[in-house]
């Protein structure tokens, strides 16, 4: 019998002196890549429908009574009487249909929809979504969906084994919905434009406003943009400007973006993401790993020949303690490359680097936000 136990001991992290550093270079990005138009957002649509034509993988009507009710209501609307008798067919499944209505979508254009099973259907592969109305949050019908459901996963099952890859109870209908109603508001009816930053930051918002005002001063003779807060920049429409052309020019302006320094750690997967602006004051880091191996090797002791002794078991325990990774390194991170090189020089794995970064943060030497996931 062998029993193995490992104990990892992380040594202390000592903060020494604060090291000077220079700010990192900002990244230049187009406004369209870091901000979105407030009036140009998607709208979510939802509907309830039926998928027919399944090969015995649909809902069992006893376990999913709403499927039977929906099927009977659909047949009655088509003029087919469903009085009396019960159907045991398993080629129909009730689904929830969802879609995103893109901004400025016009009637007659098509969008993709997703159909997800509501009952106990095992697969939607090979099914066809029957005409389904899609409504918005205001209860109005904005699109109608119908078409073949495309399922990427598959399931194979035998008497003693089964295999499944992906999800078979959810699929997509590419271009399956036709837009029937446009959104009430129109783009060119807007008095002003509101840009929303995807990553809220006061510095970036002010830079966007300054860049737009420099463009407006050269073309319209007056500033038109103002940073309302860390996420919104309001642009007043000049009287002589075409709103679509103005937005096309503004979204292609280049801005130097900024973001707070962060270190994101996922202890479950051992993932470490270090931002470019992360700084570490000069610290001395010692990391060691102590592995203790305990081996149990019981021995059988036989009695002397012709004696009245009995067979016994004698315990034998071997303990081995091994210490590795006892390097001491000075980590000084004026930039990302130096920080990573300093951590790698200690020769530890990602889980060890996670412990070191947490220790550096506790010592007050990590000049960034530590995000644990």
UniProtKB/TrEMBL annotation:
Primary residence: other
Transmembrane segments: none
Domain of life: Bacteria
GO cellular component, one term: outer membrane-bounded periplasmic space
Lineage: Bacteria, Pseudomonadati, Pseudomonadota, Alphaproteobacteria, Hyphomicrobiales
Record-level Gene Ontology MF annotations: structural molecule activity
InterPro entries recorded: Flag_FlgI
Keywords for this protein: Bacterial flagellum, Cell projection, Cilium, Flagellum, Periplasm, Signal
Protein name in the entry: Flagellar P-ring protein
Membership in a protein family: Belongs to the FlgI family.
Subunit structure, interactors included: The basal body constitutes a major portion of the flagellar organelle and consists of four rings (L,P,S, and M) mounted on a central rod.
Keyword set includes Nucleus: no
Keyword Signal: yes
Biological function: Assembles around the rod to form the L-ring and probably protects the motor/basal body from shearing forces during rotation.
Cell compartment(s), UniProt: Bacterial flagellum basal body
Pfam families for this protein: FlgI (PF02119)
Signal peptide positions on this chain: 1-26
Any one Gene Ontology BP term: bacterial-type flagellum-dependent cell motility
